[in-house]
Amino acid sequence: MTAIAFALLVAGGSFGAGLLGALTGLGGGIVVVPMLTLLFHVDLRYAIGASLVSVIATSSGAAAAYVREGFTNVRVGILLEVATTIGALVGAALAGVTPTSYLAILFGLILLFTAIRSIRPRQEHALLTTPDKWSARLRLDSTYPSAGGKQAYSVQHVPAGFLLMFVAGILSALLGIGSGIVKVLAMDQTMRLPFKVSTTTSNFMIGVTAAASAGVYLHRGYIDPTVAFPVMLGVLCGALLGARILSAVNAKVLRQVFTGVVIVMAIEMLYKGFTGSL
Amino acid sequence: MTDSAPRVSDHTVEQIVGRLLQLGVLIAALVVLAGGMLLLAQHGGAPASFSVFHGEPDGLRSIAGILRGVGAMQSQAIVQLGLLLLIATPVARVAFTLVAFVLQRDRTYVAVTALVLALLLYGLVFGHA
Fold first, then answer.
1. Which of the residues A271, B37, B82, B118 could staple to B31 if both were Cys, CB 3.0 to 4.6 A apart?
2. b/e string for A181-193 if b means 16 or more Cβ within 10 A?
3. In which element (H, E) is residue A116 found?
4. pLDDT class for B2, splitting at 50, 70, 90?
């Protein structure tokens, strides 16, 4: 394949990943690495480098839209970023010594987990206003705009959430993904933030987490310009278009399609991991 | 937030920062696009194979090397510069958040944010993990 053909095909695939990722809310980063490794036979390290760059682009590109809604809890975000950035630096160190077959298996498992989470309907949890020791000390409790005016909420289980975020940071660096799904799990399920606050705060954190390991990977030579440029531009354009047409499409069907793609990729990654052919 | 009555609210700062981030991404994307087009114009016909990891040459993985390459109008270095600008946007976001907490005289969060910024700069400048 010539460089032009490679760039065009990768840009097209990345555009689709960014578009579907934005429309389904699952993020495009999770399918970029499997696409590059399975379809284009790109080495896992180059794929992770390019994917991390695209994760930063979508996170920062979407920031203004999220902020306008006024849901982000900046204190929660910055506090948990301590955990995710340390996790990302640990993950980047681990990536250098972890066999690629192990990474492929881990990737397959995360893809399966993502598919399961997207099939199961999300359960709305009741907002808690019981004060938590850590939340009070760190002044994390806040309010968010709802239909009935400002709604107060109290943040729960701060240490457990912090620990989960450390894991999210490791996964982000090891696999070149945003780990949005683990971040939302930590904030929505464990810390009991309102769902809208979890997703917007998660977006705030994804770019920062990815930047921590992307810097390390740039120095380590994982970021190749010929691989990264069509991925970054493709995912960014796809994600921007996705955000624009979000209200006009049937998200349910798309979600099923995307989940199907994720399951196929999960099986393929697990197979390659166990046979050591990646 | 309410007890100290800050002149700049979290939300206003975040709104400005959100816009700046979008601008940063736009500039980074334009630089990457320019470098990418130049790269394809110069080396578009060359075979592209990335199945074996070689690691990038020195000139494409250090900030100084990338800047030197850009000075020499090397297409690959221009793409890397765009990617470097992109990686810098979330770092800038944390820096702005730090300024906001300084203006609010929120000592705890000035310390927390400074720690995050230090970790990010450590990865970006030194590249050790």
1. B82
2. bbbbbbbbbbbbb
3. helix A100-119
4. very low
**Contact check, Cβ <8 Å, A212/B119:** yes
Chain A residues in contact with B93 (beta carbon < 8 A): 60, 63, 204, 207-208
- Parent domain of B105: 10-43+57-126
Domain count, chain B: 1
pLDDT at A213: 94
Identify the bridge partners of residue A142 per DSSP, sorted by sequence position.
Answer: A153
Do the Cβ atoms of B40 and A7 come within 8 Å?
Answer: yes
Condensed to tens digits (0 to 9), the pLDDT of residues A72-113 reads 888 999 999 999 999 999 999 999 899 999 999 999 999 999
Closest partner residue to B120 among A5, A79, A211, by Cβ? Answer: A211
ipTM: 0.91
**Whole-angstrom Cα distance, residue B39 to residue A229?**
10
A225 contacts on B by Cβ (under 8 Å): 35-36, 39, 60, 75-76, 79-80, 83
**Residues with Cβ within 8 Å of residue B95, at least 6 apart in sequence:** B117
Segment A131-149, tens digit of pLDDT: 788 888 888 888 887 777 8
Distance from CA of B32 to the nearest CA of A (A): 6
Tell me what pLDDT residue B77 has: 96
Please, which pLDDT band fits residue A26 given cuts at 50, 70 and 90? Answer: confident
- Interface test mutation site (partner A, options B1, B2, B40, max chain A beta carbons within 10 A): B40
Instruction: Kindly state whether residue B113 falls inside one of the protein's structural domains.
Output: yes
Residue B103 in domain = yes
B52 domain-assigned: no
A-B CB pairs within 8 A amount to 222
Write down the pLDDT at residue A172: 95
Contact B15 A66 (CB under 8 A): no
Furthest C-alpha separation in chain B: 64
